[in-house]
Amino acid sequence: MNIYEKEEGIIVRRFRAEEDDIDVLTTLLHQAYQPLADQGFRYLATHQSAKVTRERLEKGQGFIAWDRGTPVATITYYGPEIPKDGNWYKQPGVGVAGQFGVRPDYQSNGLGSFLLATVEHVAREQGSTELALDTSEGATHLRVFYERRGYRFIEYADWNVTNYKSVVLSKTL
Predict the structure, then answer these.
(1) Is the Cβ–Cβ distance between 111 and 72 less than 8 Å?
(2) Do 28 and 74 touch, CB atoms closer than 8 A?
(3) Chain-wide mean pLDDT for the chain?
(4) How do 152-157 and 94-102 pair as beta strands?
(5) Could you read off the pLDDT of 52-110 as tens digits, one per residue?
(6) CB 103 within 8 A of CB 72
(7) Angle at 61 between CA 11 and CA 71, to 5 degrees
(8) Rounded CA gap, 173 and 152, in Å?
(9) Contact indicator for 155, 87 with CB cutoff of 8 Å
(10) What is the pLDDT of residues 8-23, one digit of tens each?
(11) Could you tell me the strand order of the sheet in which 10-14 lies?
(12) What does pTM read for this prediction?
């Protein structure tokens, strides 16, 4: 089991289906996405059920950031071998990061960057040549966040579970 330590008190470890409380993780995602919901963006994570949270975590490799026993952020990595929707996501060697959320009181302190770097590292180790993700075209602050970390625009996508057009971004690993 890999554990990545950001700083004293905050660790990132893999999701443990038998231990981790899905209801707590679902609430974390709802909290993390609430500022986006307040702006009118209907990301799946703004309202998904605990069942959906579990399915998404178990489909890929989930990572949870913990601060003194409390989950404060999460991200899921889906390797190239996992079937996915979207043109770019189906390309050989393309891994995908999703279900990425940081509790609002932990945002803007580097934790999101650390989680993303952790997944980039894992993706590279597992043979992905690209790491892709998507977000709302209108969430400019998130686009800037990703672009500053080397992600580039690939294509637009229109998922049936959102109320916006998405941008697919990718980074060469």
Answers:
(1) yes
(2) yes
(3) 93
(4) unpaired
(5) 999 999 999 999 999 989 999 999 999 998 877 778 999 999 999 999 999 999 999 89
(6) yes
(7) 35
(8) 12
(9) yes
(10) 678 999 999 999 999 9
(11) 3-7, 10-14, 61-67, 70-78, 94-102, 130-136, 166-172, 152-157
(12) 0.92
Query: What single string gives the DSSP state of each residue in 12-53?
Result: EEE--TTTS-HHHHHHHHHHHHHHHHHTT---GGGT--HHHH
Q: Which two tokens stand for residue 44?
A: 């799946």
Cα separation values, 31 from 41, 54, 136, Å: 14, 17, 18
Output the DSSP codes for the chain: --EEEEETTEEEEE--TTTS-HHHHHHHHHHHHHHHHHTT---GGGT--HHHHHHHHHHSEEEEEEETTEEEEEEEEE-TTS--SSTGGGSTTEEEEEEEEE-GGGTTSSHHHHHHHHHHHHHHHTT-SEEEEEEETT-HHHHHHHHHTT-EEEEEE--TTSSS-EEEEEEE-
CA quadruple 95, 98, 104, 105: dihedral, nearest 10:
-50
**What does the block give as tokens for 161?**
């579970």
- Longest alpha-carbon distance in the chain: 41
Q: Which residues pair with residue 62 across a beta bridge? A: 76
Q: Which residues pair with 74 in a beta bridge?
A: 64, 101
